Amino acid sequence: MRTRLGFLGVGKMGSSILNGIVNSNLYQKEAILLYDANETIREKLKEKGYRVAKDEKEVVCECDYVLLAIKPQMLSEVLTKISECQHQPLYISIAAGISISYLQRICGKVKVVRAMPNTPAFISQAATAITKSKEVDEESFEDVKKIFSSIGIVREIAENFMDEIVPLNGSMPAYLYYFVQAFIEHAVKNNIDYEVSRDLACQAIIGSTNMILTTDKPIDQLINDVCSPKGTTLAGLEVLKKRDFQKIIGEACDACVNRAKELGQLKP
Ligand SMILES: NC(=O)c1ccc[n+]([C@@H]2O[C@H](COP(=O)([O-])OP(=O)(O)OC[C@H]3O[C@@H](n4cnc5c(N)ncnc54)[C@H](OP(=O)(O)O)[C@@H]3O)[C@@H](O)[C@H]2O)c1
Questions:
Q1: Whose CA is nearest to atom 1 of ligand 1?
Q2: What is the mean pLDDT of the chain?
């Protein structure tokens, strides 16, 4: 890539994306300029050989594309500061709930790509939903899609679904870790070794999700294939159904989407 890429915020998500991009060789370290408000993070980045800017404005002035990886609550203050820069790059915002129009209310009609990735970006296995403002030309949009493709899969969606998508990919890792943790804890309580439990549970999830992706079978049929009549799986599944597991998941997703919408209501 010939473009210069900047990061504002190199916390959990920013560092996951950075790690994925550099490992995939899409950008060399020299083509990336970083800034994080946290001094310890800045020092660690320097130790790793990254270029670190003195402030947010330096990143904005020097870069063609700037990834905004800071908390939604802090965005308005940062945007106000960088909106003063004469050169306005293409902004890539990953802030949950923050709309393109929110950014443009502060920075003017800048080019914005809104994306929702997830932390498996760290190992180049992210799932990213992406959309763009009408100011972004196709070539630049392809460049940004390449950035996210270098760290996993990318799916383009309409902006009005960007809040609804959050439980499905942005937040999904946390829900899945919580789910797997419950199974591992049960196994460990039954005196099965932690590492054995972890490896078997994780591979069961990898294998099962790959079955969904690679066979033509509907999910209901895949469930039925595991459940022999009066068998072990069915006994457990009946407990999940009795407790209305799907309704609980639906409520968790609603809460996640509602929180994204609340963040979107923050005053610019
Ligand atoms: N975490 C996820 O799984 C996930 C998934 C999808 C999208 N996102 C989105 O990604 C964004 C970042 O989330 P995160 O979890 O990575 O948060 P985080 O770990 O708190 O990272 C944000 C970093 O930005 C720094 N920062 C604050 N103000 C700054 C400024 N003016 N300039 C440069 N850096 C600044 C923070 O420093 P201080 O700590 O000193 O304030 C912190 O190091 C959020 O908008 C979130 O909605 C996160």
A1: 13
A2: 96
Which residues have a Cβ under 8 Å from the Cβ of 219 and sit 6 or more positions away? 212
* C-beta neighbour count of 136 within 10 angstroms: 20
Q: Which domains does the chain have, with CATH numbers?
A: 5-162 (3.40.50.720), 172-263 (1.10.3730.10)
Q: How far apart, in whole angstroms, are the C-alpha atoms of residue 32 and residue 29?
A: 5
Cβ distance 98 to 263 under 8 Å?
Answer: yes
Alpha carbons 201 and 18: distance in angstroms, whole number: 29
The pLDDT tens digits for 106-128 are 999 999 999 999 999 989 999 99
Which residue's alpha carbon is at the smallest distance from atom 46 of ligand 1? 95
Contacts of 215 (CB under 8 A, 6+ apart): 222
pLDDT in tens, 130-166: 999 999 999 999 999 999 999 999 999 999 999 999 9
For the segment 23-29, the average pLDDT, to the nearest whole number, is 91
Confidence of residue 2 (pLDDT cuts 50, 70, 90): low
Rounded distance between C-alpha atoms, residue 151 and residue 142, angstroms:
15
- Ligand 1 pocket: which of 10, 12, 16 to mutate (most atoms <8 Å of CB)? 12
Contact 11, 29 (CB under 8 A): no
